[in-house]
Amino acid sequence: MTDISKAGTYKLGDRTVKRLGYGAMQLAGPGVFGPPKDRDAALAVLREAIASGVDHIDTSDFYGPHVTNQIIREALHPYPANLTIVTKISARRDDKGAWLPAMSPKELTQAVHDNLRNLGLDVIEVVNLRSMHGIHGPAEGSLEPQLNTLAELQRQGLVRHIGLSNVTRAQIAQGRGIADIVCVQNQYNIAHREDDALIDELAADGIAYVPFFPLGGFSPLQSDTLANVAQKLGATPMQVALAWLLRRAPNILLIPGTSSVDHLRENLAAAELDLPANAIAVLNGIAGEASRAV
Fold it and tell me: How many CB atoms lie within 10 A of CB 99?
């Protein structure tokens, strides 16, 4: 079995987690909406993740909605003492599966209670406030009312730590003025590197950075350079992309998602993949290729 501890650990709130975790988004149906095609397979993936040493699962009650959290509870509750479950709030789904903002104090409060109920928890270790000022990418706009609501839920003992998602540098600064921000979750991968400077700034302050879409998301990474490096290393392109992220900065925590046990094992094997310096130098040029192709 793969030893994911080789990827190292990093702090997340007042816990220390292995840097290779699991993102539960793909446990829902197509488009992250409705039930999975194979519920037993979804349960098996979660149980295999824990058996493989994963101690950090990222989820949200708007995946499904409710479906993913309910599957996590069925598969893993009562939870291992070392398991850190992180969720996110501030969006909702309509009856066709569209992603809509849900950022009012009432909606955020309800979202925390929904997560608690569906996960079977009394307190959530980390809740990420996802900015919906920009639905498909960060956009400026105050998050003060939303963060004040989340900070109040923290004071009530329902939320242990607060993170931010889909945010700009200004929103992070605003958030840190209201609460202790333990992690930032933005889009980032080997080809999408707008947050390069931000990652290093957060690392200097001991704040975890959790890239979503580490493998490209709904449009998987496509790069001849990546494929060529992977072939030379006897690995898959996705394993190389994950290994590159692990080498990129010590504060990066990975949450690749899958609904397949075989794919899960493939992702976790990236922890043991050694990237030589010449391969890293070649891989670092992929972001430039992507920008020139646009």
Answer: 17
When pLDDT is averaged across residues 58-80 and rounded to a whole number, the result is 98
- Rounded-to-integer distance, Cα 114 and Cα 277, Å: 46
Per annotation, catalytic residue among 63, 79, 188, 209: 63
Residue 188 falls in the annotated catalytic set: no
Looking at residue 294, its pLDDT comes to 43
Q: In terms of residue numbers, what domain contains 219?
A: 4-293
Tell me: pLDDT of 291 over 90.
no
HEC states along 237-293? HHHHHHHHHHHHCCCECECCECCCHHHHHHHHHHHHCCCCHHHHHHHCCHHHHHHHH
Q: What is the pTM of this model?
A: 0.96
CATH number of residue 193's parent domain:
3.20.20.100
Q: Which pLDDT tens digit goes with each residue over 15-25?
A: 999 999 999 99
Domain count, the chain: 1
